[in-house]
Specification:
The structure holds two protein chains of two kinds. By secondary structure, chain A is of the alpha/beta class. Chain A has a single domain, classed as Rossmann fold, CATH 3.40.50.970. Chain A has ten helices and nine strands. Chain B is an alpha/beta fold. Chain B starts with 9 loop residues before the first strand and ends with a helix. The chains are: A alpha/beta, B alpha/beta.
């Protein structure tokens, strides 16, 4: 009876490696559930290759019943791009954190986007480097305390939170799909990821989905504070929604509330 | 299935970089990933001109980090692929090659050495021996070939693909700017017409069958939780490397049987050394040459055996003791005096070697 009471796992999840290796309250499990459901819905388990970065995302190396490559910090995109060029029939999914995407792997991200590489990039944004113990990241909020900004992020010295999807949406050629979802809205998140994967299936171009994610371990928050931080603090800087959709190539106006000086 | 570019034997007169592009084509290489850096560029120039005619692919990446990692992606896809680089690009390439070493991925990299450290010169050196052999945060479990002629560039580029896929260690062809830019006669051939079988390539991901149901998924990782886990993996790799070594090591010995003065040099410097041996012999000095062709694994047993009755050793290289260090390690315990002629980033002529040998 207890097992029946559990929510159902996506078909593509690997039951033998569950419960997963992420901390209690971590957002990765929710993102990977949305990804799993999207893979199930599109019935692409046979064709999908999953690449995970270094950082907490590395723990996903045996998460799915998918051929999986654990790469280096920031290097998941080039590995999967190399794979996709050599085997275009495969579906390449690049999974990484905000440090891997926007700091150490930023040149790969920018270049892949401008080449419109037909891969799907999913970025977990939890505003800091979690695996290494909670250092400041490009996405850390102004005033946010981390291990390397112990008195709060000073925007004069270290800049403002990096807006990944906005950057990608600005430089991506036509055919790109760009969105920002959140673990606080799983139905929408699954929809965004599914659209991103469909974009690759249709051969239209790159797809990029950032996901606002939770790290109660390094945020030092309880459940209520964690949800408050995602829904009330992060959302001020990182507006959720679709930024680029290839259907009609219309750019949805997303409110940039984090941009006032 | 890729189209064969060469039928029969073709005598040509071309640059080393062009030879390398033809060799990769002849080997059935399907894809090149690369980033511009001198003196490697013309490998890409020739490849991008030839590739579409023979149904091969090319991707110009954003840097050598990406060139290394996209090459890894091509290998994982099961394709015979390669990249080429030099100098500071070789430095950046090492991150991906460390991953290839850990995960036993058959990457092939052609290195056309230029002056170092830093940007230095775009011309020539033998200063990337340490980096190519031992770059990365690991043990140097790689295969490194040192060609000395255009025929070598052709045959060892083909061989690099076979050694990489047979033994699954990252494999390098360690050329240099002189060999890359020099125009020289060469014989191009189709390897299979010469009875050479190309090692088959196979995918490591994107395999047939539904993963988790019809087969186990490929879960490839390079991160381990415990010291013991890592040690077990590395011990297996080291065992494979050591058992491969007798099959892989190559060397060339010239006038060695009665040599009292043994010169040790690799790559293009070995050609100057061979000419020097001839002059020294004509002048009555019993000189010989030992040329390691594989620098990793190094022909340790062969060098120790062939050192034989030598009373003096001379290491000659366009670097400040990188080959010398390998020679000293190989000859540990032997009490033969060794002097070295070290010219980091400089070309070396036979006359210089003759003079150095006579002044000993």
């Amino acid at each position: 009876m207890a097992i029946e009471a559990q929510p159902q796992m996506p078909r593509v999840w690997r039951a033998e490696t569950k419960p997963h290796k992420f901390c209690p309250g971590c957002g990765h499990g929710i993102i990977l559930k949305a990804l799993g459901e999207a893979i199930d819905a599109l019935n692409i388990q046979q064709r999908a290759v999953f690449g995970c970065d270094i950082g907490c995302s590395l723990l996903a190396w045996d998460f799915f019943n998918l051929d999986t490559i654990q790469t280096h910090h920031g290097r998941t995109t080039p590995v999967l791009v190399g794979l996709k060029r050599a085997r275009p029939e495969l579906l390449a999914i690049c999974y990484m954190g905000d440090g891997g995407a926007y700091a150490i792997g930023a040149q790969h991200l920018v270049s892949s986007v401008s080449r419109n590489d037909p891969v799907t990039i999913i970025v977990a944004n939890n505003t800091q480097y979690a695996m290494t113990g909670g250092q400041m990241a490009p996405t850390t909020l102004p005033g946010q305390k981390t291990e390397t900004s112990p008195y709060g992020r000073d925007v004069e010295l270290t800049g403002r939170p990096m807006l990944g999807p906005e950057l990608v949406a600005t430089i991506a050629p036509s055919g790109a799909y760009v969105a920002r979802g959140t673990v606080a809205n799983v139905v929408q998140l699954k929809n965004f990821i599914q659209k991103g994967l469909s974009n690759q299936l249709k051969g239209r171009g790159i797809s990029f989905i950032e996901v606002l994610s939770a790290c109660p371990t390094n945020w030092h928050t309880n459940a209520a504070e964690t949800w408050h931080f995602i829904e009330k603090e992060m959302s001020k800087f990182f507006p959720v929604g679709e930024l680029r959709t290839p259907d009609g190539e219309q750019r949805q106006e997303v409110e940039h509330r984090g941009r006032q000086p | 299935m890729v189209t064969k570019p060469i039928k029969g034997e073709q005598r040509s007169f071309m640059t080393g970089n062009e030879v390398i592009a033809w060799a990769a084509l002849a080997a059935g290489c399907e894809f090149m990933y690369g980033y511009p850096i001198t003196p490697q560029n013309e490998i890409m120039h020739y490849w991008t001109r030839l590739a579409p005619k023979y149904e091969r692919g090319f991707l110009q990446t954003e840097d050598e980090i990406s060139a290394g990692f996209t090459t890894i992606g091509g290998v994982l896809a099961g394709k015979r692929v390669f990249t080429a680089t030099a100098g500071p690009g070789n430095v950046l390439m090492q991150e991906a090659m460390a991953m290839a070493e850990m995960m036993r991925l058959p990457t092939v990299v052609v290195v056309t050495q230029r002056g170092g450290p830093s940007t230095a010169t775009v011309i020539y050196s033998q200063q990337e021996l340490n980096l190519t052999s031992f770059g990365g945060n690991g043990e140097g479990l790689r295969i490194v070939y040192s060609p000395a002629s255009h025929d070598d560039l052709f045959s060892y580029t083909i061989k690099a693909f076979n050694s990489a896929w047979k033994y699954r260690f990252p494999t390098f062809v360690l050329g240099d700017g002189y060999q890359s830019k020099m125009r020289a006669p060469v014989t191009l051939y189709d390897p299979e017409e010469r009875g050479l079988t190309m090692e088959p390539c196979y995918p490591m991901v994107g395999l047939p069958g539904l993963p988790g149901e019809e087969r186990e998924p490929a879960h490839l990782r390079n991160t381990y939780n415990l010291e013991e886990e890592l040690f077990a993996i590395l011990s297996d790799s080291i065992k494979d490397y050591e058992s491969m070594t007798p099959e892989v090591v190559e060397w060339e010995a010239t006038a060695i049987d009665d040599a009292e003065l043994l010169i040790i040099a690799h790559g293009i410097v070995s050609r100057a050394a061979r000419a020097a041996v001839q002059v020294l012999r004509e002048e009555g000095l019993k000189a010989g040459l030992f040329r390691p062709i594989t620098l990793r694994p190094f022909p340790v047993a062969e060098l120790r055996r062939l050192t034989g009755q030598a009373r003096r050793l001379i290491v000659v290289e366009s670097a400040y003791g990188q080959l010398e260090k390998m020679v000293k390690t190989a000859l540990y315990g032997l009490k033969i005096p060794l002097r070295s002629y070290l010219r980091p980033g400089m070309g070396i002529t036979p006359e210089e070697i003759v003079q150095f040998a006579k002044e000993l």
